[in-house]
Amino acid sequence: MKYPVALKKIIGVEHYKVTVPDLPGCECNGEDIDIALNKINDSIAAHLSILSEYGESIPHATTINNHLETNLNVIWCIIDIDITPYLGKSHKINVTLPELLIKQIDDRVSKTSAYKTRSAFIASACMNELNK
What we know:
Layout: E1 2-10, E2 15-19, E3 27-30, H1 33-53, E4 75-80, H2 99-111, H3 118-130
Antiparallel strand pairs: 1-2, 1-4, 2-3
């Protein structure tokens, strides 16, 4: 999932504050932009891990446009996080699909490193649809 993050220089010190508006309370500071963005990846993972541990749903990412009015004077970035590990235990299910569709899925999986399996492709498609 691609979460927008707001990066703001802290006036008077050589630090940057990074917040994730879609994950309230998820923020960190860093000495420079690269360090701050690396730290926010860890902060997001920890935040999602805690939500998962308590059985809370993972908040959907919104677009930067949803936050522009309330977060002025910041640099916007996108952090892409694989939320699959935080969705809970995997379960095997039966799904019936047309043969041609299965062939198209298998073809895409074989040509794209982003999807290791047919199941991963289908899960990704489902997440994209649910995030609309």
